[in-house]
Amino acid sequence: MPVTVLVGALFGDEGKGKIAAYLSHLQSPSYMVRTGAINAGHTVYHNGKEYKLRALPSGLVTFRDGKGGTAPGALISIEVLRREVELLGLSKEQVLVDERTGIIEDKHVEKERRDAHLAGKIGSTLTGVGAAMSDRVMRRLKLARDFKEEIERFATVVDLPELLYEAIDSYKVVHIEGTQGYGLSLFHGTYPYVTSRDVTASAALSEAGLSPSDASDVILVTKAFVTRVGSGPLKGELSEEEARRRGLIEFGTVTGRMRRVAPLEENLDLLKRAARANGATKLAVTKVDVLFPKAKGVTRWSDLPDEAKRWLFDLEKEVGVPICFVGTGPEALETVGCEA
């Protein structure tokens, strides 16, 4: 059953969008499904252009012949979705919004901005996701079917799981794109410094209306170093000065805030736990070129510098999951694919 799930291993910002775009380029999926919510941004670089996506699946950047959808369990803003459809130049037939997708309204954003606990201690992105999720739990949240006329100006409202079942039964390729990372899971992360939902592979499948047995592959994505936005523990955290010296400074896609940085070696316990909890079958490691500049732009394993190969071999042995994708630059196709 050709269903692949992509999830983050750490605290988000691992490069899931890049790997999703690369994988779609390789596998030409019939359906690409985004789970999660708009508090998580995926950045993809393709043909010299930057795409920042918060609602649509990243695979649409590199493969336009498939259809992209938002899962029943996803939370989106209609305006954010509309802007992304325009950014990618998609037809309404290419963009599928499940009728049960939750809709974030202005009132949810305002509610979070008034919450000193979220803005201060937790370091929330303040995009209305937590407030909308709270309304969903209390059965007050409006769904896509309540805004069908507005959404269908640029997308199509559907029963997405039914389409996925038909695709799976016909052995068509389906990609499920998770958000954030295991360390931010509401249930398994560094509570209370977590997001408002579970973000494991099984949760992503559930949000899409699929069962764990539908997945043929779970790709766990990590960076060659660890970053975190906002509050919460981070083992081995580097000072800003040291992070700058090592060339590891980054800024969040959604918040624009500087990301905190730590070596991956200091967080291997979390990475191994994420591999086990997600049932990872493959590991993707991005930004290897940041640690090993000679790896920049390499697309074949044999062309990687020896020091990078040794580091990757050691990491694979430590985690116990085969490394099948290695990111060597910001472009989606600047990737070593050890297998398609």
Describe the structure.
Plays an important role in the de novo pathway of purine nucleotide biosynthesis. Catalyzes the first committed step in the biosynthesis of AMP from IMP. Its EC number is 6.3.4.4. Pathway: Purine metabolism; AMP biosynthesis via de novo pathway; AMP from IMP: step 1/2. The chain is α/β, with parallel strands linked by helices and 340 residues long. It has a single domain, classed as Adenylosuccinate Synthetase, Chain A, domain 1 (3-Layer(aba) Sandwich). The strands form 4 sheets. It has a 10-stranded mixed beta sheet with strand order 9-7-5-2-10-1-11-14-15-16, with helices on both faces. It has a two-stranded antiparallel ribbon with strand order 3-4. A hairpin with a 7-residue loop joins strand 15 and strand 16. Helix 3 packs across helix 5. The protein is globular. The protein starts with a strand and ends with a strand. The mean pLDDT is 94.
